[in-house]
Amino acid sequence: MESPVDNQSDNPMIAAPLHLVGERFMLCPSGVAIWPTKQTLIVADLHFEKGSASAVRGNLLPPYDTRETLSRLASAIRRHAPQRIIVLGDTLHDDRAMARMASADLIMLKRLFAPLRILWIAGNHDPSPQPELPGECVTEWREGQLLFRHIGCSAPLARHEAEFSGHYHPKATLPTRIGGITRRCFLATNQHLVLPAFGAFTGGLDVQDPAMSALTRRAQRVFLLGRDRLHSASFGALRQAFSATGSPAR
User: What is the C-alpha separation between 179 and 107, in angstroms, rounded?
Assistant: First the structure.
Protein backbone atom coordinates (compact mmCIF):
# COMPACT_ATOMS: atom_id res chain seq x y z
CA MET A 1 0.00 0.00 0.00
CA GLU A 2 3.02 2.33 0.22
CA SER A 3 3.85 2.62 -3.47
CA PRO A 4 2.53 5.76 -5.23
CA VAL A 5 2.36 3.80 -8.49
CA ASP A 6 0.02 0.81 -8.61
CA ASN A 7 0.58 -1.80 -11.31
CA GLN A 8 -1.87 -4.44 -10.17
CA SER A 9 -4.64 -6.03 -12.21
CA ASP A 10 -6.52 -2.82 -12.99
CA ASN A 11 -5.14 0.11 -14.96
CA PRO A 12 -2.05 1.61 -13.26
CA MET A 13 -2.74 4.76 -11.24
CA ILE A 14 -0.36 7.27 -9.69
CA ALA A 15 -1.42 8.35 -6.20
CA ALA A 16 -0.49 11.67 -4.59
CA PRO A 17 0.79 11.95 -1.01
CA LEU A 18 -0.87 14.18 1.55
CA HIS A 19 0.23 14.75 5.15
CA LEU A 20 -2.16 15.65 7.97
CA VAL A 21 -1.25 15.80 11.70
CA GLY A 22 1.89 13.79 11.10
CA GLU A 23 0.15 11.01 9.16
CA ARG A 24 0.79 10.19 5.51
CA PHE A 25 -2.12 9.48 3.20
CA MET A 26 -2.24 8.63 -0.49
CA LEU A 27 -4.92 10.16 -2.72
CA CYS A 28 -5.92 7.83 -5.55
CA PRO A 29 -7.27 9.00 -8.94
CA SER A 30 -10.17 6.58 -8.39
CA GLY A 31 -11.45 8.97 -5.71
CA VAL A 32 -10.47 7.05 -2.57
CA ALA A 33 -7.88 7.97 0.06
CA ILE A 34 -5.48 5.42 1.52
CA TRP A 35 -4.03 5.44 5.05
CA PRO A 36 -1.12 3.06 4.51
CA THR A 37 0.02 2.60 8.11
CA LYS A 38 -3.52 1.57 9.10
CA GLN A 39 -4.20 -0.44 5.91
CA THR A 40 -7.36 1.62 5.55
CA LEU A 41 -9.27 2.80 2.48
CA ILE A 42 -11.44 5.90 2.92
CA VAL A 43 -14.32 6.66 0.54
CA ALA A 44 -17.31 9.01 0.54
CA ASP A 45 -20.82 9.31 -0.83
CA LEU A 46 -21.52 5.99 -2.53
CA HIS A 47 -25.25 6.81 -2.81
CA PHE A 48 -26.33 3.26 -3.54
CA GLU A 49 -29.73 3.09 -5.26
CA LYS A 50 -29.91 6.71 -6.35
CA GLY A 51 -31.21 5.50 -9.71
CA SER A 52 -34.08 3.54 -8.19
CA ALA A 53 -34.91 6.48 -5.90
CA SER A 54 -35.26 8.66 -8.98
CA ALA A 55 -37.48 6.04 -10.62
CA VAL A 56 -39.82 6.11 -7.62
CA ARG A 57 -40.25 9.83 -8.25
CA GLY A 58 -40.91 9.25 -11.94
CA ASN A 59 -37.46 10.23 -13.21
CA LEU A 60 -36.34 7.14 -15.05
CA LEU A 61 -32.62 6.47 -14.95
CA PRO A 62 -30.78 3.24 -15.81
CA PRO A 63 -31.02 1.10 -12.65
CA TYR A 64 -27.37 0.05 -12.66
CA ASP A 65 -25.68 2.71 -10.55
CA THR A 66 -25.25 0.46 -7.49
CA ARG A 67 -23.60 -2.25 -9.57
CA GLU A 68 -21.30 0.25 -11.28
CA THR A 69 -20.33 1.83 -7.95
CA LEU A 70 -19.64 -1.59 -6.41
CA SER A 71 -17.54 -2.58 -9.44
CA ARG A 72 -15.42 0.56 -9.15
CA LEU A 73 -15.06 0.06 -5.41
CA ALA A 74 -14.05 -3.57 -5.95
CA SER A 75 -11.34 -2.33 -8.31
CA ALA A 76 -10.05 0.09 -5.66
CA ILE A 77 -10.03 -2.70 -3.08
CA ARG A 78 -8.05 -4.99 -5.40
CA ARG A 79 -5.65 -2.17 -6.11
CA HIS A 80 -4.92 -1.16 -2.52
CA ALA A 81 -5.67 -4.37 -0.56
CA PRO A 82 -6.98 -2.67 2.59
CA GLN A 83 -7.99 -4.48 5.74
CA ARG A 84 -10.44 -1.77 6.73
CA ILE A 85 -12.76 0.66 4.93
CA ILE A 86 -14.17 3.88 6.36
CA VAL A 87 -17.20 5.16 4.42
CA LEU A 88 -17.85 8.83 5.15
CA GLY A 89 -21.64 8.83 5.00
CA ASP A 90 -24.38 8.73 2.38
CA THR A 91 -23.64 5.12 1.60
CA LEU A 92 -27.33 4.80 0.73
CA HIS A 93 -29.31 7.40 -1.17
CA ASP A 94 -32.19 7.01 1.32
CA ASP A 95 -33.36 4.75 4.11
CA ARG A 96 -35.35 2.56 1.68
CA ALA A 97 -32.39 1.86 -0.58
CA MET A 98 -31.65 -1.60 0.80
CA ALA A 99 -35.25 -2.69 0.12
CA ARG A 100 -34.93 -1.61 -3.52
CA MET A 101 -31.48 -3.07 -4.11
CA ALA A 102 -31.35 -5.97 -6.58
CA SER A 103 -30.53 -9.29 -4.91
CA ALA A 104 -27.48 -9.76 -7.14
CA ASP A 105 -26.13 -6.37 -6.05
CA LEU A 106 -26.74 -7.15 -2.38
CA ILE A 107 -24.85 -10.43 -2.75
CA MET A 108 -22.00 -8.60 -4.47
CA LEU A 109 -21.92 -6.00 -1.67
CA LYS A 110 -21.78 -8.62 1.09
CA ARG A 111 -19.10 -10.67 -0.66
CA LEU A 112 -17.00 -7.58 -1.29
CA PHE A 113 -17.07 -6.44 2.33
CA ALA A 114 -17.10 -9.83 4.08
CA PRO A 115 -13.31 -10.10 4.66
CA LEU A 116 -12.94 -6.46 5.71
CA ARG A 117 -13.64 -4.35 8.76
CA ILE A 118 -16.16 -1.68 7.69
CA LEU A 119 -17.02 1.57 9.45
CA TRP A 120 -20.13 3.25 8.06
CA ILE A 121 -20.39 6.92 9.06
CA ALA A 122 -23.98 8.18 9.16
CA GLY A 123 -24.88 10.73 6.48
CA ASN A 124 -27.75 13.10 5.89
CA HIS A 125 -29.23 10.65 3.34
CA ASP A 126 -28.84 7.60 5.60
CA PRO A 127 -28.88 8.71 9.24
CA SER A 128 -30.32 5.43 10.54
CA PRO A 129 -28.23 2.25 11.01
CA GLN A 130 -28.90 -0.39 8.35
CA PRO A 131 -28.75 -3.93 9.78
CA GLU A 132 -28.27 -5.41 6.30
CA LEU A 133 -24.90 -3.68 5.95
CA PRO A 134 -21.96 -5.69 7.29
CA GLY A 135 -19.81 -3.75 9.72
CA GLU A 136 -20.28 -1.03 12.31
CA CYS A 137 -22.46 2.08 11.87
CA VAL A 138 -21.37 5.19 13.81
CA THR A 139 -22.25 8.89 13.84
CA GLU A 140 -18.57 9.82 13.51
CA TRP A 141 -15.24 8.17 14.23
CA ARG A 142 -12.22 9.47 16.12
CA GLU A 143 -8.82 7.82 15.83
CA GLY A 144 -5.95 9.60 17.52
CA GLN A 145 -5.91 13.17 16.22
CA LEU A 146 -8.16 12.37 13.25
CA LEU A 147 -11.91 12.76 12.95
CA PHE A 148 -14.01 11.06 10.30
CA ARG A 149 -17.48 12.54 9.74
CA HIS A 150 -19.91 13.18 6.93
CA ILE A 151 -20.11 16.99 6.93
CA GLY A 152 -16.87 18.90 7.35
CA CYS A 153 -16.59 21.85 9.74
CA SER A 154 -19.75 20.72 11.54
CA ALA A 155 -17.85 21.10 14.83
CA PRO A 156 -14.67 23.01 15.73
CA LEU A 157 -11.32 21.27 15.54
CA ALA A 158 -8.48 21.71 17.98
CA ARG A 159 -5.25 22.97 16.42
CA HIS A 160 -3.67 19.53 16.63
CA GLU A 161 -6.63 17.73 14.97
CA ALA A 162 -7.58 17.03 11.36
CA GLU A 163 -10.78 15.88 9.71
CA PHE A 164 -11.90 13.70 6.79
CA SER A 165 -15.35 14.33 5.36
CA GLY A 166 -17.56 14.02 2.29
CA HIS A 167 -21.07 15.45 1.70
CA TYR A 168 -20.24 18.30 -0.66
CA HIS A 169 -19.31 16.22 -3.74
CA PRO A 170 -16.54 18.70 -4.60
CA LYS A 171 -15.56 19.42 -8.17
CA ALA A 172 -13.24 22.05 -9.60
CA THR A 173 -12.42 23.62 -12.93
CA LEU A 174 -8.83 24.18 -14.05
CA PRO A 175 -8.26 26.78 -16.78
CA THR A 176 -6.32 25.58 -19.83
CA ARG A 177 -5.46 27.05 -23.21
CA ILE A 178 -8.50 25.39 -24.72
CA GLY A 179 -10.93 26.21 -21.92
CA GLY A 180 -11.74 24.92 -18.49
CA ILE A 181 -11.54 21.27 -17.54
CA THR A 182 -13.96 20.23 -14.79
CA ARG A 183 -13.48 17.12 -12.66
CA ARG A 184 -14.44 15.74 -9.29
CA CYS A 185 -11.72 16.57 -6.80
CA PHE A 186 -10.24 16.25 -3.34
CA LEU A 187 -10.21 19.55 -1.43
CA ALA A 188 -7.39 19.93 1.10
CA THR A 189 -6.61 22.39 3.88
CA ASN A 190 -4.01 22.01 6.60
CA GLN A 191 -6.69 20.37 8.79
CA HIS A 192 -9.29 19.01 6.40
CA LEU A 193 -9.64 16.66 3.49
CA VAL A 194 -12.97 16.61 1.66
CA LEU A 195 -13.31 13.56 -0.58
CA PRO A 196 -15.06 13.51 -3.95
CA ALA A 197 -18.34 11.62 -4.24
CA PHE A 198 -17.65 8.06 -5.39
CA GLY A 199 -21.15 7.01 -6.48
CA ALA A 200 -21.86 6.50 -10.17
CA PHE A 201 -24.81 8.91 -10.27
CA THR A 202 -23.45 11.57 -7.91
CA GLY A 203 -23.01 15.06 -9.29
CA GLY A 204 -20.68 17.73 -8.01
CA LEU A 205 -20.65 21.11 -6.28
CA ASP A 206 -18.01 23.54 -7.47
CA VAL A 207 -15.51 24.37 -4.76
CA GLN A 208 -16.12 28.07 -5.45
CA ASP A 209 -19.75 27.72 -4.35
CA PRO A 210 -20.62 29.75 -1.23
CA ALA A 211 -22.03 26.59 0.38
CA MET A 212 -18.43 25.42 0.84
CA SER A 213 -17.10 28.71 2.20
CA ALA A 214 -16.49 27.35 5.72
CA LEU A 215 -13.95 24.97 4.19
CA THR A 216 -12.63 26.95 1.25
CA ARG A 217 -11.62 30.01 3.26
CA ARG A 218 -8.79 27.79 4.51
CA ALA A 219 -8.33 25.72 1.36
CA GLN A 220 -4.81 25.13 0.11
CA ARG A 221 -5.04 22.70 -2.82
CA VAL A 222 -7.42 20.78 -5.01
CA PHE A 223 -6.60 17.42 -6.60
CA LEU A 224 -8.72 16.79 -9.69
CA LEU A 225 -9.36 13.18 -10.64
CA GLY A 226 -7.81 12.04 -13.91
CA ARG A 227 -7.88 8.65 -15.58
CA ASP A 228 -4.58 7.51 -14.08
CA ARG A 229 -3.27 10.47 -12.08
CA LEU A 230 -4.39 13.52 -10.13
CA HIS A 231 -4.12 17.08 -11.40
CA SER A 232 -3.23 19.41 -8.54
CA ALA A 233 -3.59 23.17 -8.27
CA SER A 234 -3.38 25.69 -5.47
CA PHE A 235 -6.69 27.08 -4.35
CA GLY A 236 -5.23 30.53 -4.89
CA ALA A 237 -4.90 29.79 -8.60
CA LEU A 238 -8.57 28.82 -8.74
CA ARG A 239 -9.52 32.04 -6.96
CA GLN A 240 -7.55 34.08 -9.48
CA ALA A 241 -9.28 32.32 -12.38
CA PHE A 242 -12.64 32.92 -10.72
CA SER A 243 -11.85 36.61 -10.17
CA ALA A 244 -10.81 37.06 -13.79
CA THR A 245 -13.98 35.53 -15.27
CA GLY A 246 -16.59 35.90 -12.53
CA SER A 247 -17.21 32.14 -12.66
CA PRO A 248 -15.16 28.97 -12.89
CA ALA A 249 -13.44 28.68 -16.27
CA ARG A 250 -15.45 26.78 -18.86
Answer: 44
Rounded Cα distance, 215 and 235, in Å: 11
What one-letter code names the amino acid at 218?
A: R
Specify burial of residue 185 (Cβ count, 10 A radius: 0-12, 13-18, 19+): buried
Class of residue 130 by CB neighbours under 10 A (exposed 0-12, middle 13-18, buried 19+) = middle
41 residue type, one letter: L
Condensed to tens digits (0 to 9), the pLDDT of residues 138-191 reads: 999 999 999 999 999 888 899 999 999 999 999 999 887 777 889 999 999 999
pTM score of the predicted model: 0.91
**Among positive and negative, which fits the CA dihedral 48, 53, 55, 59?**
negative
CA–CA dist 58, 235 (Å, integer): 39
Point out which residues pair with 58 in neighbouring strands: none
The residue extents of the domains of the chain are: 16-245
Residues 94, 98, 101, 107, CA torsion sign: positive
Q: Among 158, 184, 155, which residue's Cα sits nearest to residue 172? A: 184
CATH topology of domain 16-245: Purple Acid Phosphatase; chain A, domain 2 (3.60.21)
